Amino acid sequence: MTGLLRTVLDFVDAGGATMPPLLLCCLAMWYCILRAWFDLLPASAGALQAEMDRTFACLCGRSGAEDADLAHVLAEAVRSRTRRRLSLAAVLAGAAPLLGLLGTVTGMIDTFDGVARFGMMSPKVISSGISQAMISTQTGLVVAVPGLIAVYFLRRRVHRQRLVPVRLACPADGGNAP
Question: Which of 16, 32, 81, 102 is a Cys-bridge partner for 89, taking CB atoms 3.0 to 4.6 Å apart?
């Protein structure tokens, strides 16, 4: 485990100053994606059902049409929370390649600075700047592409998801649905 951690830290160090924000962007993006995914799981639909049951338990005297309207509003509130998470994940996925590009520019500036100081006779200076540029670019793309694919997949799922209004049994009327 320490060998893997050391390798990751060396990779982050080789990528330059833009790597820590890029990794934070990656972690925040995947947190939002996973939370949205958990919202869309069938087990979460059961939790939503329980939430609707509790809400409708206080509204037993209402008509079926009012219950259906309330169910739609409640379901839309849950979908909007998921859409907000996916929107944030999309923004973070869009920011990742830009952070990678910033790392590329920083690496190339370091390369030209090294050439200005030491001339073309120091390949280590030139190669370290180019390496920094390529590592940050690669990391930005590796973070963004799977994140955008996941966001697209989950957005399609949210769009297709239709929560059916629930008819609840009211304890006051002996358990008969309205």
Answer: 32
